[in-house]
What does this fold into?
Amino acid sequence: MRAEVDAGFTLLEVIVVVVILGLVLGMVAANGPLRSPRLAQAAAVRDIRQSLQDAAARAIAQDRTTVFRLDPARGIWREGGRTGTLPAGTQVIFRGVTGVAARKAPVGMVFFAPDGSASGGRISLAGPGGVRIIAIDWLTGRIKIDAPGPRR
It folds into this structure.
């Protein structure tokens, strides 16, 4: 005679595991996706840089001046048909050409010319991820991201 082999799980054990997994997933879903303020700021810096590069490329390709607009007070930027927002808690300082929008609030603008040059400027973003500076060279239109060095 053969002895019975006890292999596998009982139905009760499987049900307990499924219930525990359901509770854990319910708690994770209730808290929403896990987000890091530091990663959100880094993504915003990359998005702004990409929008600036797109504006520069479009100016050259279409042989006309393009404009990147940044509203530091509202934390919004616009380039072409694209609009972006900064994460909450990010402070913005724009140094460069400043225009006046219809609502009379200062809006920073960077102009890109068809010859590859730009009006230049610096966008400083300070938040949980530290301070990041996006520099736009006026002569070459080159866009560079820097972290500032120690103060002297």
